[in-house]
Amino acid sequence: MIPFFKVSGGGNDFLALAEPPATPTEEQIRSWCLRGVSVGADGLFVLRRDAGGAGMGGEVAMEYWNSDGLPADLCLNGTRCAAQLAFHLGWAEGAVRVKTAAGPFAARRLDPTRIVLAVPVPERPRELTVEAAGGMHPGWSVEVGVPHFVLHWPEGLAHAPVAELSPAIRRHPVFGPPGTNVNFVRFPERHRMEIRTFERGVEGETLACGTGVLAAAAVGVATGRAGLPLRVLTRGGFELMVEESPETPETPEITGWSFSGDARIVASGELLAGAGLAPAAPAWE
Fold it and tell me: Which residues are catalytic, by number?
């Protein structure tokens, strides 16, 4: 039996293991994250207390894997959930620094359902046109710890071809072997953005994607379509916020933007043997 938490950040859901005796295997992660036959999640992270100890200004370290069992350097919704879990467990109070493979992120608790992260300003988006699914698709490539491709979709996201177009772009040769995440975005007003994201590693649309929000916000700002503060509506119905967050003497770690919104502890339980018995997908003829 393995204790776990189920957490959600804007609808992006994760399994979280707090200081497990062993790091889960790729096969275990894939099985546990499989919806319908196990607990199900977009990904899994392991959270550990840093050697520096707990308390105000303490540190925790997270390792993150997508539901395909492969590691990813950064998941910002997962990072906000990791901070919320650290507060829930009493490992920190009010503020904490979360170490990730993409670097540390300062987090502050707004309330039991919201966390704000200090994040660096994303790199300048690179214009790129991708030929896929029988058409040419202009957009922007942005690295936010992980790669993203952003498509401006002003006609509305209700009928955006997320499922039809994204797989071809996600694995397009121009993005190399790692591929890319794919985002469809609309800016109905200067300080509002709507977004739908197809996540690599999940290989489908998720209800939210934090790094996708930052990548798309960078595109909006760089092209003049948007300005901060920016309220962002995700597929899950939650509203996330991207704001300018200048450095102050009290918060020297904050040097760019802040990213805030929903981050909740949903449930806790134990992973039993049945959670790891995932069948192979049928080979239909």
Answer: 75, 209
